[in-house]
Structure formats: C-alpha cells, structure tokens
Specification:
Helix 4 runs antiparallel to helix 5 and helix 8 packs parallel to helix 15. The chain contains 17 helices and no strands. The radius of gyration is 21 Å and the shape is globular. The longest helix has 35 residues. It has three domains: 206 residues, MFS general substrate transporter like domains (Growth Hormone, Chain: A, Up-down Bundle), CATH 1.20.1250; 54 residues; 203 residues, MFS general substrate transporter like domains (Growth Hormone, Chain: A, Up-down Bundle), CATH 1.20.1250.20. The protein is mainly α. Helix content is 78%, strand content 0%.
Length: 488
C-alpha cells in the first residue's frame, strides 16, 4: 500500500528546500570540523597524561562515526521507504541535534565516542531522506536543479569545514558540536511544521538490522586490532583475537546477506565485475584519503605548532579545488570514461602526497612545502571521488542504482575507518622516532595505497568487457545515496 503526497505550494517548497539543504550541510560539515579540533580535544581530555586516554582511544572519536554511518545508511533508508520519510528524517535530525549537545558536554573520551555514534545514526537517517523529501516538494522540471543544489552542500562543507572548525576550536572545541544546536533546532521546527510525508511502501521488506550489526562489528574489531597494535603488540593474543573476530563477523555477515530478503549488501550486485572493481578502488582510495586528511592537520598543529584557526585556513584551498575540478571535468571531459579519470585522480593525489612528504619540513614552509601539493591533491580528489561512484553504477540497471550507490557509500566509509586506524597504528608504533618521521611514514604508505587504487580503478575498463550489458537508461534524478556522496 502506498500513500500519496499532495502538491506543494511554491512558498512551502522553498522552505523544504532550505530544510533539506540545511540538514545535508550540517551533517557534512561535522565530518570536517572535528578533524581540525581533534588535537585540542585530546589535550582537553588529558591524552598523554598518567591514567588518561591514549591516542588509540582518541581514534574512536572519528572511527565510530564512519562505522555506524556505514552500517545504518542502507537499512535506515529502507525503513524510511517502509514507514515514511518524514518520520525517519525528523527522528534522525532530532537525534543528531541531541547527540551534538551530548558530545559538547562529554567529560571523557568514551562518553564522546558514544555520542558520536548516536550522531552518526542520526546522520544516516536524515541524509538520504532529506533528498527524498526535497524531490517530492519540487515540480518535475525543478528537481534536477534542487538535487544539484543539495549535492553542492558536500562541496561547500568540504571547503568551509576546516576554516569554520578552526575558528570554533579557537573559542573552545565544545563549539564544534554546539554550533549544530541552533541550526538543528530551527530546521527541526520547520520540518515538523512544513514537511509532508512522501510516498512510502507498506509492502517493503524489513531491512536486515542484524546484518548491519554484524558489519559494524567486523569493521570495528578490525579497526580495534590496528589501533591497539602498538600497545598490545602485533603478535599478542589481544591483537590477533580482535583481527580473527573481525574475520568471523565478516563471514557471518556474508552468510546473512546471502540469505536475507533485504540485505545490507546485495550479493547479486557483486557479480557485476565493473561494480565490484570500482567499489574496491573506492574503498582503497579512501584509506589514503582519510589518513592524509587527518595527518596534515596533526602535522601543522603538532610539528609546526599552528593554532586550529591557522590550520583550518591553511587546509581550505585543497578541498576548495574539488568542486572546481568537478565542474571543469563535467564541462570539458564529458566523454572520458569515469574509471580512467578516477585512475588519473588517484595518481595526482599520490604525486601531491610525495611532494608534501619530501618538501614539508619541521619548520613551517607552507607556501613551498604544502600549498602546491594541496592544490594538486584537491584536483585529484575532484577527479577520483565522483568518478569512482560513476564507474561503480555505470553498468547497473536503474532499479538497482539506489542500492548500488548505497553500497558504494559504505565502501567509502569502511575505507575511511581503515585509513584512520592505519594512521594511528603507524604513529603509535613510531612514537620513539618523533612525530615528523611518523607523519612522513604515514604519507609514504598512503602513496602506495593510492597507486593500488589507481590500478584497481583502471581495471574497471577490463571488467566491463566481462560484464553482461545492463539497461543504460538512467533515472531522472539521482538516488538519495548517490547524491549524498561527498565530493571531498
């Protein structure tokens, strides 16, 4: 049974566009401002003091968000289809705002980790549903423009996030989370008053929440084994036990996905070889992207001794190049295969990473040691990230595009968790050699990862010839998961 929505008035439509775009921007901004505040959060919560949390403990402030978001994105999207998108959107927005307030009030690392997980659950509920609500509020001829505006919030959040995060951290790291309260409360009030529910399918299958839990456990235990390895030792029973348990939960997740009617990951899509190769490249690329994004912040703050505000301003030019590159690529390279553009993009990021690793010294030399590299890196991300998504979904039938893009988003988030965990494993293992040596090692490992990503992206071209042709007609508008893919 499907309920129908009534036509929206122009004034109401404009309000709903504001709600959807505002919610997407707020959740996207949270990904970038926390990186800049990371070092100050650690100092405030006593990292490195006797009896205080370790740097490995701190990694979960970032990792828990990606783990929970990856596990819940597809199931909550399906719950929204079943029970109504307004209900899920309003609930997700309310949870995100409440969890943001709790994050700001957290007095220790593990309280902050817990509430970051709740933040991620709220974001996983409101991000895809916000686009569905926006599309339903607009007439057909204006939907493409609305989707583009909504999608551009990812680029805007990436460009503005470091600067906003630096400014807020300069006041207090608590403001990185408190800023969500006034914005979120206004959006919540507007949503309750003005948003009408969209179509929902009462016959939709119940999503696999147990499968989502198994996925979260597999990824989380793998990250645990990596980040704790410097303290526990690589050959210790605890480290080997965490990694072995990760494999067991991953196996159970695969078995569960093969048997459930509405799995988190649809096994049928993995038989499309181009989809499988593109998602492998997506995951691998984001391992390096996540590590680089945070290591540059730590380099500037811990080696150069820069303030959060100065760090945010220094990092901003790189993310700002991403939307510019996307626009230029769309204008001048329309016929280029997306997987080839993604492969070139990964190589550009690798070259930029080598440049920064070799040029940035212990003394601040931003304009020669970092700035040229971050410009080239931003261009590479602008080529790689959106084109990997395009390469992943190119051969999928329209009926499977929504599920396919959701799976690609999960691959990106899992890569993010592995990248952050890899960073802390390397830094923790090399503390005795000093931060500069450890940071350079992280960057050089990232170069190797990026080159592997370039090869796997290029492999999509070969996989196409082995993949049965799928319908090429594309949907009129992107799916919520596809449009929610961040551009940086």
């Amino acid at each position: 049974m499907v309920s129908r929505t009534r036509a929206q008035s122009p004034a109401r439509s404009r309000v709903i566009v504001l709600i959807a775009v505002g919610a997407a921007f707020m959740s996207g901004l949270d990904l970038f401002v926390v990186n800049v505040a990371f070092d100050q959060i650690g100092v405030s919560l006593g990292v490195g003091t006797d009896g205080g949390p370790t740097i490995a403990d701190m990694s979960w402030i970032l990792n828990i968000y990606a783990v929970v978001y990856a596990a819940l994105l597809v199931p909550l999207g399906r719950i929204a289809d079943r029970y109504g998108r307004k209900t899920v959107f309003v609930g997700g927005l309310a949870l995100f705002v409440a969890a943001s307030a709790a994050c700001a009030l957290s007095g220790n690392v593990w309280m902050l980790v817990l509430f970051r997980g709740l933040q991620a659950a709220g974001a996983a509920a409101m991000t895809p549903t916000s686009l569905s609500i926006l599309m339903a509020a607009l007439p057909p001829e204006k939907r493409i423009g609305g989707v583009r505006m909504w999608s551009a919030t990812g680029a805007a959040a990436a460009a503005l996030g470091p600067t906003i995060g630096g400014f807020l951290t300069g006041i207090s790291w608590h403001w990185v989370f408190l800023i969500n309260l006034p914005i979120g409360v206004v959006l919540l009030w507007l949503a309750v008053r003005h948003v009408r529910d969209t179509e929902h399918d009462e016959d939709a299958k119940t999503p696999d929440l147990l499968g989502a839990l198994l996925l979260a456990a597999a990824v989380g235990l793998f990250a645990l084994g990596l980040v704790q390895s410097p303290e526990w030792g690589w050959g210790s029973p605890a480290t080997l036990g965490a990694l072995a348990a990760s494999v067991v939960f991953a196996f159970l997740f695969v078995v569960r996905s093969r048997r459930h009617a509405a799995p988190v990951i649809d096994p049928r899509l993995l038989r499309v070889r181009s989809f499988m190769w593109a998602n492998a490249s997506m995951l691998i690329f984001n391992v390096a992207f996540a590590a680089n994004t945070l290591i540059f912040v730590l380099w500037m703050q811990q080696v150069w001794g820069w303030s959060p505000l100065l760090t945010g301003l220094a990092i901003a030019p790189g993310p700002a190049m991403v939307p510019i590159t996307v626009a230029l690529t769309s204008r001048f390279l329309r016929r280029a295969r997306p997987e080839r553009l993604a492969s070139v993009g990964a190589v550009l990021v690798a070259v930029a990473t080598v440049y920064i690793a070799l040029s940035a010294g212990s003394e601040a030399n931003y304009w020669l040691g970092y700035f040229p590299g971050t410009i080239v890196s931003g261009m590479g991300v602008g080529l790689a990230s959106p084109n990997l998504m395009a390469a992943a979904t190119h051969n999928l039938p329209p009926a499977q595009s929504s599920t396919g893009t959701g799976m690609s988003t999960m691959a990106r988030q899992i890569g993010y968790v592995i990248g952050i965990s890899m960073l802390f494993a390397i830094v923790g293992s090399m503390q005795a050699l000093g931060p500069e040596v450890a940071f350079r090692t992280v960057l050089l490992v990232s170069v190797g990862v990026l080159l592997i990503s370039s090869l796997t992206a290029f492999g999509v071209t070969t996989a196409r010839h082995a993949t049965p042709a799928a319908p090429t007609r594309a949907p009129a508008t992107p799916s919520p998961e596809e449009a929610s893919e961040p551009t940086a």
